């Protein structure tokens, strides 16, 4: 049998790389089949190793909000590279970046650059612990904050309070300091705060959940958390790695007008290069070394290529508020017509959209948290995904990921996506029913 190039490359990759990928979400585990290997992309069209083209709804999992190979980003990286790819010493561009972040997200009075969203979240909870002198954190089931040990903790069976490592290699000692609450459920948070009175350093969450599909905060949820953190002297951390610079210039904070104490960034902030950041109120950020005693460092942090790419992309977003309007209109266009298709095909679904993040749950339940998200029909998604892929639409290869739209999408591409979806839903429904 003739292998296509992705199959050939995946076989080769598996010999040298665990599972053939450098991050598990890429491996197509939840949809089955062979991950597609890509070698170029422009705007919203992404091309695989066999020369097939797809309309891209992954956008590198978020960073590509203005499309792939966005000319100002490409030029910025090229220009910077001629002056050295790294100094390990301060540069002016880092100040420009920090200033720009502060203009776009006004409560980020000081910011520290790191190399990934994972690093940003790990550092933010260390800072919150150092600042408050308390040790426990509250997070929400189904929210993702990268692969730091403290976040790979799931709720124990029954009791919400007893955390258990969700990955081998994470210790029980670490697990006992991470408490899991239920998303959109303030009572579950209050209960944990009461049971752990005086011990909670921080509450960390995705202000719009994007890692269990797209789930918006219910009215009052973010405000309630703000209030609880004030009352219990805990640091409120918004993980805006996905939502930052996407839902508005000032991210979810601006969109919902609820302001956290610390914020973490990643994805868009690097324009496709490996960047993360954490920042917030001056008095909290000043506990970070070398100003304060909380240690945090990075050989390549603030790297000139990464800063140049990020600065080029963020500047474009700052200077073109209409991009957010256009992008939201496009996403709404897709959402509305997708709902009509789902209705026509008489498929049970719940669909959410916040700004340019959206996703479909194939379920008759109303999805508000991890357990309701898990009622989605994964088999139906698996078939839908592959039928879309065969028709030239690259969706996130998991029923529990948001689709990330880019402003490089045209209405022709959105219409082509809807035509593909019409056929794909028909096939998927027939296969699941039989
Ligand atoms: C992607 C993501 C992270 C982790 O970022 P990496 O750069 O992959 O380490 C953390 N939090 C959220 C909300 C994310 O979506």
TrEMBL record:
Gene3D superfamilies in the cross-refs: Aspartate Aminotransferase, domain 1, Type I PLP-dependent aspartate aminotransferase-like (Major domain)
UniProt entry tagged with the keyword Cytoplasm: yes
EC number: 5.4.3.8
This protein's pathway: Porphyrin-containing compound metabolism; protoporphyrin-IX biosynthesis; 5-aminolevulinate from L-glutamyl-tRNA(Glu): step 2/2
Signal peptide: none
Subcellular location: Cytoplasm
Enzyme class: isomerase
Tagged with keyword Chaperone: no
GO cellular component: cytoplasm
Family in the record: Belongs to the class-III pyridoxal-phosphate-dependent aminotransferase family. HemL subfamily.
Name of the protein in question: Glutamate-1-semialdehyde 2,1-aminomutase
